[in-house]
Amino acid sequence: MQLTRRGVLKGTGALAGIALASRAGLADARGLLTDPLLEEVIDRALGAAKKAGATYADIRIVRRRSEALFARDDHIANVSGDEGYGLGVRVIAGGAWGFSAASQVVPAAAERAAQLAVEIARANAPLLQRPVQLAPVKAAVDAWQTPLERNPFKIPLSEKSDLLLALTGALLKVPGIQHCFSWFQALGEWKLFASSDGSHIEQDLIRIRPGYRATAIDTASGEFASRDHDLSPAQAGWEYVARSTLLADAPRVGEEAVQKLKSPSVTPGKKHLILAPSNLWLTIHESVGHPTELDRALGYEANYAGTSFLTTDKLNKIQFAAPQLSFYADKTTPTGLATCGYDDDGVKTQKWDIIRNGRFVSYQTTREQAGWINESSSRGCSYAQDFRSFPFQRMPNVSLEPGPKDLGLKDLIAATDDGILIRGDGSYSIDHQRYNFQFGGQMFYEVKGGKVTRTLRDVAYQSSTPDFWRSCDLLGGAREWEMGGSFFDGKGEPTQVNAVSHGCPPARFAQINILNTNTGKGRG
Amino acid sequence: MKPDAPNLKGALDAALAAAKRLAPAGAALVRLESRRDANLRFARNEVTSSGDVDETTLSVEITLGQRHASSDTNQLDPASIEATVNRAIGMAQVAPEDPEVMPPLGPQHYLKAAPASDAPTAALDAATRAKMAREAMGLPSGEGLQMAGYLEHFSSRQLLGTSAGLRAEHQHTGANLSVTARTADGTGSGWAANVSHRIADVDPVKVGAVARDKALKSAKPTKLDPGRYTVVLEPAAVAELLSFMLFAMEAREADEGQSFFAKPGGGNKIGEQLFGPHVTISSPVGDPLLPLRPFDEDGLALSPTTWIDKGVVKALSYSRYWAKKQGKTPTGFPSSVLMAGGTATTEDLVKGVKKGVLITRFWYCQSVDPETLLTTGLTRDGVFLIEDGAVTRPVNNFRWNESPIQMLKNADALTRETYRVAGDFLPVRVPALRTNEFNLASISDAV
After folding, report:
1. Residue A98 near residue A118 (C-beta atoms within 8 A)
2. What share of chain B is helix, strand, coil (3-state, %, to 5)?
3. Are the Cβ atoms of B265 and A219 closer than 8 angstroms?
4. Residue of A80, A112, A438 with shortest CB distance to B70
């Protein structure tokens, strides 16, 4: 949804898609930002950096707001409203990066941060093999805002707590459910970016995370099982919650937790595996999203998040997946958690192919990284979690295109003689080069003779990334394509979190290693 | 260059005074932390990014009868302090009643903490960080290896106060250096780290050298089949798997039946002998090697607690609410954990192995089954075959599926020395240990 300038003037406060001709025009559009002090803060930071000898500088002024409610069984256990505000100045001096931040958004603090950033850059410059070079970017003066109907921060607290208690109330009515949680979090990220390249970009993002969990307990045996609702977090307003089936689903979700507890343990072995989008999104995140990050591939994350098996010599060469599979990266899809107008380098966001017809065709990059693989422009993947964090390459939304046939989960089940169907995401783990992974889920079903025959428990699937994606033999169509996502993708040192979504249809994978995770030991 | 030190005491008093004025019938808990965090990252034998950040945060919790809410800010001017208090009050007024709410604590008596704040660590500058990074990378030679790493240090001052008269203060510093060395052919990788509250304890030359040595020794690994093996776990691996047990040691979850520590039929496992007599796990207060805050987030005084004594579960952690409900003493949330050492040296652990695997550290550990504490994860940065009491050759990495319970049940030797380990979990000191029947479930091709 693109809102117009007319919408702004009508008082909706919307900023989406407004191209502004000059900085002088910004004050009209912002609504939020009419404080001339901020112009001085920006000028003083960029001026001080230049004066100290920086060849490039940018400043981000960021306000983060969070509102969170958490219900435990029959009561609201936590209500919090938090806010953090500050500025971060990033410079290149002597060819090296320097960064400093301050929580006082005043001209003197901005100037001091710029000077300290240059001092740090100069101290580090002798330890460089080659100077940092940024791919060119067209200076932008623009604003962008999450398209939404009802700002969650303006919804009365009682409406949110009523919903959370209605959810736990409905779950606790299910025979066999002893305990449950429900939660809602809204995260607001307002930021103003300005750079020595002449960019001046204001963005206002709102993300929400609703959910709940039911737990069934067999006290006599000491066994228990939980089931989470599958609704994904999203970049959206309260309307996303209001239109969801969270409340209507509560009896079913509770009953599924009880059913899971009573289910037989899976027989391990190689089987066809059918994954609903509510499970497959996370597998895409770990095994397609992360290995196609260029900084990993080149060793820049070796000390923590790891490297990648998709090294640069494999670009345009390796058959990563079955030929019918294509994955794209994008930061433009509505409701996607990583969607925005511009990245934290001031690069306009875009959509591009990562895997085309099974072949690995491109990486995720920033302005600094584009030149590392002889590309002339950035893919726009720079992000810092808050004012005090250094921007670096973070994952865009990476999604699997739907197949050309109108196939749904029912069709995939009907085509399967002996398999397992998994809904919802569970335990997840993958090695530091993104080969060997093991994933669980929320609900597991035995599929025999084209039908779901019973529920199972203690299921995990384990595979190696290329083997897994090459084994995909049935791909669902657009009708059942859905996005899943997380607020909490961690990377870097110090660790920063990034919110990201992944869309996909249901899909089937042939002869995957199914594990039984019930060790028996320790139980009872 | 540095901004003026914020007036934390003034801000604490201002927030409590605002709470009293704006909600006279309410109760308040106020926390303040003023922190400097600075860091330097390096990779591919060069510096990549570096930063230096000062921030002061204020957190206000307001309780009005049984209603409560909290609000945080990093803006410390008088108007922002009042706005933050007001926001917490406003949210508390409309929050539903919480039958489990506990009033803020009154004055507490804290045990004397070991000195945790170190002036050179707090004052470290960009030039010193760059020098340490150069030493860690072993430049200019670097032995042809690709070095990556991270150096961070912080200084923190925390104040806590309540409307019931509690006042608490703690200052501490920290420094952490970790280094990964990779061979040019991509077949070998080694890792090492130092963590302490004193930068003087962080030895970049030694950390870099250990990582490089491991990388060279781990190059060109040979294949070892998955299976159950005797493994020697270095302290980083022990600490990471152990943390899954530590986080499960909450009395409430156990009493409610949703934890490994739940007892079939009801109740919890306090009093049960779970492990051999060599397993003792405690939270000391005032340990000079683990100098941490003597109070928890509510300001509750922490007492020395033994969680596992010679293999027997002696305590689980009780929140104030759950302790009151169950008629127990609240333990608060511990600020550190010490696993006692045994009698062996690291060499002894290897000597006793006919056929086994030496593991440097783990990666991407995740809970698989909270009922058994089954956890999965991978080995990383140095895995070696042990044959007839000696390390013989590097082998491939593995995915494992194992629980901390089995790790401790099957442990048969621990090093005398314990080591401070950095991580995302509680600060801990643990020994290296040897354990049997460890499930190395499948091969990982990652290096």
Report:
1. yes
2. 25, 40, 35
3. yes
4. A80
Q: Are residues A29 and A100 in the same domain?
A: yes
Instruction: For residues A453 and A317, state if they share a domain.
Output: yes
What amino acid occupies position B178?
S
Task: List the single residue in B with minimal CA-CA distance to A464.
Answer: B444
User: Are A292 and A219 in a shared domain?
Assistant: no
Co-location of A297 and A409 in the same domain: yes
The ranges of chain B annotated as CATH 3.30.2290.10 are 8-215
The reply to whether A211 falls in a domain is yes
Fold of B8-215: PmbA/TldD fold (3.30.2290)
Domain count, chain A: 2
Q: Which of A262, A295, A324 is the last residue of a domain?
A: A262
Torsion, CA B308, CA B314, CA B319, CA B323, rounded to 10: 180
Predicted TM-score of the model (pTM) = 0.94
CA torsion angle for A295, A298, A301, A302 (degrees, to 10)? 170
Q: Which DSSP symbol is given to B220?
A: S
Q: Is B274 exposed, middle or buried (0-12, 13-18, 19+ CB in 10 A)?
A: middle
Chain A residues within an 8 Å CB radius of B380:
306, 431-432
Tell whether A102 and A213 lie within a shared domain.
yes
Same domain flag for A420 and A469: yes
Report if residue A521 sits inside a domain.
Answer: no
Q: Of B264, B267, B225, which is closest to residue B385 (Cα–Cα)?
A: B225
Instruction: Spell out which residues of chain A touch residue B405, defining contact as CB-CB under 8 Å.
Output: 521-522
Min distance B396 CA to chain A CA atoms (Å): 12
Which two three-digit tokens encode residue A375? Answer: 């590309």
Kindly list the residues from chain A whose CB atom is less than 8 angstroms away from the CB atom of residue B125. 123
- Structural domain boundaries, residue A371: 273-516
Q: Is residue A524 one of the residues assigned to a domain?
A: no
* Cα→Cα distances A489→A503, B37, B48, B115, Å: 16, 22, 21, 36
Which positions in chain B touch A388 (Cβ < 8 Å)?
37, 51, 53, 55
Which one of A161, A185, A519, A523 makes the best mutation probe of the B interface by having the most chain B beta carbons within 10 Å?
A519
Minimal C-alpha gap between B288 and chain A (Å): 26
CATH code of the domain in which A33 resides = 3.30.2290.10
A519 to B133: CB separation less than 8 angstroms, yes or no: no
* Chain A / chain B CB contacts < 8 angstroms: 287
The reply to whether residue A100 touches residue B133, judged by beta carbons under 8 angstroms, is: no
CA distance A272 to chain B (A): 19
Last residue of a domain, one of A207, A236, A262: A262
Token representation of residue A404: 């050309």
ipTM score assigned to the predicted complex: 0.95
- CA of B274: which chain A residue's CA is closest? A522
Residue A523 lies in a domain: no
Q: How far apart are CA A472 and CA A20, in angstroms?
A: 46
* A237/A299 same-domain check: no
- pLDDT per residue as tens, chain A (524 positions): 222 222 222 222 223 222 333 333 343 434 444 468 899 999 999 999 999 999 999 999 999 999 999 999 999 999 999 999 999 999 999 999 999 999 999 999 999 999 999 999 999 999 998 999 999 999 999 999 999 999 999 999 999 999 999 999 999 999 999 999 999 999 999 999 999 999 999 999 999 999 999 999 999 999 999 999 999 999 999 999 999 999 999 999 999 999 999 999 999 999 999 999 999 999 999 999 999 999 999 999 999 999 999 999 999 999 999 999 999 999 999 999 999 999 999 999 999 999 999 999 999 999 999 999 999 999 999 999 999 999 999 999 999 999 999 999 999 999 999 999 999 999 999 999 999 999 999 999 999 999 999 999 999 999 999 999 999 999 999 999 999 999 999 999 999 999 999 999 999 999 999 999 998 633 33
> Is the CB of B369 less than 8 angstroms away from the CB of A78?
no
